[in-house]
Every structure is written in structure tokens, then in C-alpha cells.
Amino acid sequence: MTPDTSPPAADSALDAFLLRTVLTGAMALPMLIFYAIGTLGPFLVTDLSVAPGWLGYLTMSAFGFAALLSLWAGPLVNRLGSRRALALLFLVATLAYGLIGVAPGFGGVVLAVAVCGIAQALSNPATNLLIAERVLPQKKAAVVGLKQAGVQVAALFAGLVLPGIAQQFGWRAALLLLVPLGMLLALGAPRIAPKAAAGKPASFGLARPSRVLALLMAIQLCAGVALSAYITFLGVFATRQGMSSVVAGSLVAVFGVMGILARVVLTPIGGRMRDESWLLLILLALAACAIGVTAQATPERHWMLWAGTIGIGLTAVATNAIAMSMLLRDRAFGTPATSAGMLSVGFFGGFAFGPPSFGALSAGPWGFDGAWAALIGVLALGCLLALLLVRARRSVDAGAEVLSNPAGAK
Asked: What global pTM score does this model have?
């Protein structure tokens, strides 16, 4: 594997703290809409007069757009530089929450939520580029884990804060509260990025991913399908088992805490492994078990909802952080911003496809049982792909060794 050895800028303790805060915010704010849909789902269904399965179209509008834009997000971030990319990210996210708060009807909300897809597409390329510019190589895995934990900070906030506000003032008011936060980040965050990074020439032609990147994208597609469907419909499924909307929101908060723990702890562990693909395989297999536990929940067995949610938070959530760390550690996947954009195509594609498919299955003759079983099958496919990635990376390493030591080649 070829490590990234680009020299980072020197950081003071305050600079390091601000850098990590901005990285966390850049991941949290665009993704908050996803967890908001999960925690506010019962409120949305009632207020917008739609069937529960329609919630999947809200998620699809944001992440389908994000997946499409991610094809060009990496080159765009390279062109803008991390400073201007961060400013654009926070401004677009702020605009999206403002539009969601005032959009009329379900169709209007779908269009407003789609605007979040722009910020989501920019988040991983912009933050990965900033890490490549500012963080020492030996600290990159830990910082990636921390910034990816920002996604779970969004889950924690959505689960603990939004349902209570929505119950008192309505779900629109809960989302409008994010507008001033977004403006604050848009004004302050770009200051920690280097000025010299802007203006790099870049090609916007579609690049073909390498074999290892294509496999990692497919693994993230599977993880995205499972995670998005699980969180989007967890609140609705929990209320069907007799939970109140506020308690169901607490499930997402617990999911967020477990996800933060998993990403902060497991990403550095993966960074010390020779091949993190094995860790991805283990986590996806355990996530399938957690979904199986969730599926067995009944009004008399709420503990299975808690156990399943904790299990998903500790396993599937960490896979994206580990995958992003792999991109920074091994240049066989490509340059930081471009490979992050391509990986996001797979992950966001899973987020776009998962909820509407799960919603359609849950409304069919097999109900939620069939939908949960389908998610387990998707994660099993992800495990198979992880095995293929192990084999592919061994081939890449063997080829690199032959090239670096041609005298020893036969």
C-alpha cells in the first residue's frame, strides 16, 4: 500500500481544536436531515397526510441528488479548494433547512430536502481534502474517525432535541432552528482552511474507479441501503410496537452515541491493520445480526429495539469512517478528494435506494418482516464483497512489490 505523505500545515492547540470542530460540523449539518426524517417521521406523516412508506421518498430526494453530484464533487472541491468548498457546503445546508421550514405540502418538502444533497455531496471530498492538507499522516485515521463521528453527533442531536421541540412548536420550527447555526459555521469555518488551496485546475470528466475503489463503493452501497432504511423507518416501526414518538426518538439518540463511539474507536484500530477489509466484513456481519434482533421486537419486547439499535450503531455506522480512512491511507484508491467523491456515490446511492425500497416491501404482503429480511440479505452481499476486496488488495500489493523490486521477480 502506498501511504499519503503530503506535508500538513503546522497546527497550534487552538487550530487543532477548531479544525476538528469544523470537520465534525461539516459532516453533521448536511446529514442531520436524514436523522430528522427518522425522528420526526410520525410528525411528518400526520402533518403532511402521507403514508409512512412515503418517508422513503424524502430520503431518496436528498441522497439520490447527492449520489449524482458526487460524481463531480471531488474535481469541484479540488478546483474550489477546501476554503471555498467549506463555505459553499455550509451556505447550501443553511438554505436547505430554511426552505424545508417553509415549503408547502409534501412535494415542496421533497424539493427542499433535495437541496441538502448538494451539501452532502461536498462534505466528504471537502473534509478529506482539508485533512490531507492539515493533519499529520500518523494522525489521519483518528481525525477521520472523529470527523465521521460528526454524522452520529447529528443523530444524537436529532434524537434528543428535535422530537421535544416538534411536540411543542411543530416539526418545521425544529428544523428552522438550524438556520442560525448553519450561518455561524458558514461565516467562521472557512477561516481554518489554507488560502493557497483554491484555484487548482481540475478535469470534470467522469473518471473510472479502480477495481479496489469500485469494490469499496459497492460495499458502501450495501451499508448505505441498510443504514438508511433502518433509521428512516425505526421510529415508525417502534411506534407500531407501542412506543411513544419521543421515546422512539431516543432510539436514534442512542444510535448516535453508539455510532460516535464506534467511529472514534474502530477507525484508528482499522488504521493499524494491514487490511481494513476484514474489519468491514466483521462489522457488516454483526450488523445483519442486529437487524435480526430488531425484527423480533414486539409490544412486550421493546428491549429488542434497544439492543438492535445499539448493535447497528456499534457496527454498520463505523464502516463509512473506516472506508474513508482507507482512502487517505492507500493511494491505490485515488486522490483524497476525488476518491472520497466516488465513494460517496456508492454510499449515498444506498441511502437513496434503501428507504423507498424498504417502504415498498413493508407495505407489501410480507410487511416489516420481509423488509427486515431483505436488509439482512443486502448486508450478506456486503460481506461477500468485502472478501473480494481482500483478494483484490492482495493483488495490488503483490503487483506493487514486484514493481518496486524487479530483480526479485521471476
From this structure: 0.75
